[in-house]
Specification:
By secondary structure, the chain is α/β, with parallel strands linked by helices. About 35% of the residues lie in helices and about 15% in strands. It is globular, with a radius of gyration of 16 Å. Belongs to the thiamine-phosphate synthase family.
């Protein structure tokens, strides 16, 4: 079952986010050892794996997550998430509507991206466990990211959502995480801040210190 504490340090990563000389398995295992609370497999872009290669990698990474008892979420790919029995799915505003697949993800984690108040007002959260809000800051990890909304968007959404689980995303790093925590997010989701860190253990523990 989903627990909002699982959003504290939510690592998102695909092969496209890994620096040269490393593998995604190495990076994920270091992040898991350091204490990440949730992992999302997001395989995107021109170099992304597809088909059977993507499935086999997803199964490997899911197994790694199970070893550390950390939920394994698939980004966007509903068919893959169902096929490998992932712990959940995360979709964006332009992806498949939650109501189209929610029944098949009963007792799983469902996340939805929301960038602003307008998207919130047009979103049905009745079958969603958490929302990912952002981008907080400019981000190099997503080519299609919209304009940054900043931590103030979390405060605005809190007026409508009370204690509904919110994870902040986009451009978050060790130097700006404090303002996210102060805005009352349940946690942060990061890509390059962990995948390209020179010391993943130190980075993850630094992030965790703001949400314990």
């Amino acid at each position: 079952m989903f627990n909002p504490k699982q959003l504290q340090v939510y690592f998102i990563c695909g092969t496209q986010d890994i620096p040269e000389g490393r593998t995604i398995e190495q990076v994920l295992e270091e992040a898991l050892q350091a204490g990440i609370t949730l992992y999302q497999f997001r395989e995107k872009g021109p170099t992304a794996l597809k088909g059977e290669d993507k499935k086999q990698l997803a199964l490997k990474l899911k197994s790694l997550c199970q070893t550390y008892q950390v939920p394994f979420i698939v980004n966007d790919d509903v068919a893959l998430a169902k096929e490998i029995d992932a712990d959940g799915i995360h979709v964006g505003q332009d992806d498949e509507a939650v109501k189209a697949f929610a029944a098949e993800f009963e007792n799983k984690i469902i996340g939805l991206s929301i960038g602003n108040l307008d998207e919130y007002q047009h979103s049905d959260l009745s079958q969603v466990n958490y929302i990912g809000v952002g981008p907080m800051y400019a981000t190099p990890s997503k080519d299609d990211a919209s304009e940054p909304v900043g931590p103030s968007m979390i405060k605005k959404l809190r007026e409508y959502l009370d204690d509904f689980p919110i994870v902040a995303i986009g451009g978050i790093n060790e130097s700006n995480v404090a303002s996210i925590a102060e805005a009352d997010a349940d946690g942060i989701s990061v890509i390059s801040a962990i995948s390209r860190s020179d010391n993943i253990d130190k980075t993850v523990k630094h992030f965790l210190s703001y949400f314990k």
